[in-house]
## 1
Amino acid sequence: MNRRLSISTPEDQTIPEAPALPKLPSGCSWQDDGSVRMLLKKALTKETSSPAGKHSEDISELVFRDLTAGDIIDSSGLLTGGKRTLFLMCASSGQSGPAGEMLLRSMAGSDYIKATRIIDVFTSDGPMTGTSA
């Protein structure tokens, strides 16, 4: 016995579509967990030291995660917009502390601007009513 199942909705009711993800800058892509992967135009070198000696690692991409309310609150004590942006980039990319800040400060200017656009995606609540996206 074959059965057919059909689902219908009243004419005045529509099934909402999943919201579209915001557009990202070129070289960036959404990951399954909601983070954003950004390919760097110029690789960064992260240097660390330990009792075993110095170690350097080339980084060709960064992954940014959505910010938390705590990240935003913690950034509010910083006096300039540039310092707040750098703090939020460090928090979002997991590059924390002075070493993380130095790493992000060494990015190519175009990579830094691209990263600021990713932070904007995570902090934007969408277009204002009556405006176009």
## 2
Amino acid sequence: MKRHAGVPRCMEVAKYLKAHAFFTHVPSIFSKTLDPTDEQVLRGRRSALSQAVRWLLGKLVAN
């Protein structure tokens, strides 16, 4: 079954959502070219890390 990735504005339909997110979206949000002091960049990175923790540990993680 193919579904949309859980990333805002991503319209990609993928069979393996975690793999799609990991290979497509994670490299861009952790790019060294992004301003590390930008609030939106920091929120995106925090969100990506929180999602990875949820995938690894389940829904036990509090934001």
## 3
Amino acid sequence: MKTYFRRGTIIAPVTLALLAAAAFIVPASLSTHSNPVPALFQTLENARLADLGRVLDVPADSLSAALKQQGFVVHSSDQRLAEIASGSDRPTMAALMTVLEVKRP
């Protein structure tokens, strides 16, 4: 191992490895794009129950029934998921996870 350092033969492979790593690290650190997952969850949490039903290909009645079974208070399918969660004093993420677990008919 010491001979690599004495002769300097390790310099070229280490330099190439650092350049290869920089080719991925530099563009990622300069990118202004953020993680899209939080924006997706925020959009789903603010969606109406009827819209979520269409997107998930599940009847809104099934989503409503699943939420009611988990203790959420649902008045209509025109309510937003965040409204349902806040009206039930439950976290919005819990309501979203309940909706996402409903199976298609």
